Amino acid sequence: MGTFQLEDFAAGWIGGAASVIVGHPLDTVKTRLQAGVGYRNTFNCIGMVYKRESVFGFFKGMSFPLASIAVYNSVVFGVFSNTERFLSRHRCGDPEAGPSRSLSDLLLASMVAGMVSVGLGGPVDLIKIRLQMQTQPFREATHGLKSRPVAPGEQAAYHGPIHCIATIVRTEGLAGLYRGASAMLLRDIPGYCLYFIPYVFLSEWITPEACTGPSPYAVWLAGGLAGAISWGTATPMDVVKSRLQADGVYVNKYNGVLDCISQSYRQEGLRVFFRGLAVNAVRGFPTSAAMFLGYELSLKALRGDHTVTSP
Q1: pTM of the predicted protein model
Q2: Any residues with CB less than 8 A from the CB of 192 and at least 6 apart, and which?
Q3: Is 1 inside a domain boundary?
Q4: Which of 105, 143, 186, 229 has a C-alpha 20 to 30 A away from that of 243?
Q5: Domain of 88?
Q6: 63: part of which helix (H) or strand (E)?
Q7: How many whole angstroms separate alpha carbon 163 and alpha carbon 80?
Q8: Domain assignment of residue 213, yes or no
Q9: Which residue ranges contain the repeat Solcar (predicted)?
Q10: Would you say residue 308 lies in a domain?
Q11: How far apart are CA 151 and CA 249, in angstroms?
Q12: Alpha helix locations (H) across 93-176?
């Protein structure tokens, strides 16, 4: 079997689509909480979104992630799997990922996947967050902030993903699509290390020695736990990233990562960086469980294997 395998990319695409469908409602709640626009807690946010926008408010901006995150996830999983396979072959001449998978290989492959994720995922996250945030009443979105001039009664800044992209490029240039990319880099490099590595070791630990590969239940449980761990620990930098990316819908408040951290701490204290922690951890389980299960089962089908094979 060759080192580079396209099946990983195809399976990652399917896993990404599954994760968006499962996780987008809680992702909307997480984004609203982290942007700091007047919600007291998670349940208050859920109640207010439902009251103001009905159940469809939880799926605001999902079309773009559904179309793009599947591709993004395809690249992340494909890069991770093929990088680890390449490192394994280079280290010991074994292209297959066996029980003695090297922690150093997993670590380096995760870091590479994290760096690649920012290049593709930065604009995707930005558009998703802008679409999720634009439904906030203007008076709440600008509460306590110095706002830029806005037309009276302005509510919806964007009419959809394409209009959002065009507006950002027109007003901020191509660099505007990567607003918050540095915070995302600081989130995703350690985040993917705490995503793939726990998944690999948990799935191996759950799987009995007599089995040749993890069962769907082992994949689901290990993937869910890995997602909860990764998203839980990534919350502080995820808050910063969300605030930087939400900045600009109605106001321009932050001048970068350090300025965002400084202003957020000064105005709301240390606890602001753990805003959305519960939502992140809870959302991380079903989202990642669906992602890994979709990935593994589709990879099994594509390869015609009789066992599930870890990435």
Answers
A1: 0.75
A2: 76, 80, 110, 111, 113, 114, 117, 230
A3: no
A4: 229
A5: 7-146+153-303
A6: helix 63-92
A7: 33
A8: yes
A9: 3-86, 101-205, 214-301
A10: no
A11: 13
A12: 103-133, 138-141, 161-172
Q: Could you give the CA distance from residue 191 to residue 186 in angstroms, rounded to a whole number? A: 8
Answer yes or no: is 2 within a domain. Answer: no
Q: Which of 35, 33, 32, 31 lies closest to 254 in space, CA to CA?
A: 35
**For residue 183, which of 246, 238, 130 has the smallest C-alpha distance?**
238
Pick the residue with more confidence: 308 or 132? Answer: 132
Number of domains in the chain: 1
- Phi, then psi, of 147 in degrees rounded to 5: -95, 160
**In CATH, what number is assigned to the domain containing residue 244?**
1.50.40.10
d(C-alpha 286, C-alpha 274), whole Å: 20
Query: What does the DSSP assignment read for 107-128?
Result: HHHHHHHHHHHHHHHHHHHHHH
Specify the residue for token string 């290049």.
Answer: 119
Residue 173, Cβ neighbours under 10 Å: how many?
9
Does residue 238 contact residue 281 with C-beta atoms inside 8 Å? no
Residue for token pair 């808050």: 239
Task: Give 234-282 as a DSSP string.
Answer: HHHHHHHHHHHHHTTSSB---SSHHHHHHHHHHHH-GGGGGTTHHHHHH
61-70, 136-145, 159-168, 277-286: the lowest-pLDDT one: 136-145
pLDDT of residue 307 exceeding 70, the answer is no
The closest of 228, 241, 212, 244 to 282, measured between CA atoms, is: 228
